[in-house]
Amino acid sequence: MGRLPMDDPALLINDELEVYFDESDAGLEMCCPLRSLPTDSDQLQAILSMNYASPVTLAADADKSVLLALYRLPPESSTEDMLAGLSLYVETIEQLRQEAVMKAA
């Protein structure tokens, strides 16, 4: 799988979940590469339809080679909000990875 154009992940969970953080005036964004982007359009459509039922946004990277999981917190988030957001983010990603449609073909 391709690498993100960022430094090493800020957080590595269970030796497999790489979480990158980008803080700006717009808030805190968490980003995690999930898998290579599917080449099958039906599988890609099924994966992207998960955006309707998840707090995490699924998207492609700039090179259209990696499926990313994104989560944004507003700039006024407290430390507690950020920790709760990170917990929800990791839990959601773990649930998404269990979905059959997410398995690489």
Q: Which descriptors apply to this entry?
A:
31% strand, alpha+beta, 105 residues, 27% helix, globular, five-stranded antiparallel beta sheet, 2 helices
Helices, strands, pairings?
Elements: E1 11-13, E2 17-24, E3 27-36, H1 41-48, E4 57-60, E5 66-73, H2 79-98
Antiparallel strand pairs: 1-2, 2-3, 3-5, 4-5
Description:
- The chain has 105 residues and is α+β, with helices and mostly antiparallel strands.
- The protein has one domain (11-102): 2-Layer Sandwich (Yope Regulator, Chain: A).
- The chain contains 2 helices and 5 strands; from the N terminus they run βββαββα.
- It has helices at residues 41-48, 79-98, and strands at residues 11-13, 17-24, 27-36, 57-60, 66-73.
- The chain has a 5-stranded antiparallel β-sheet with strand order 1-2-3-5-4, covered by helices on one side.
- The radius of gyration is 14 Å and the shape is globular.
- The two termini are 14 Å apart.
Q: What's the CATH class, please?
A: Alpha Beta
Query: What is the strand content?
Result: 25-35%
Overall body shape: globular
Number of helices, where a helix is a run of at least 4 consecutive DSSP H or I residues: 2
Largest sheet: 5 strands, antiparallel
Q: Remind me, CATH topology?
A: Yope Regulator, Chain: A
Computed structural class: alpha+beta
Distance between the termini: 14 Å
Q: Architecture, CATH level 2? A: 2-Layer Sandwich
Q: Which residues form runs of ≥5 with pLDDT under 50?
A: none
Number-wise, the strands total 5
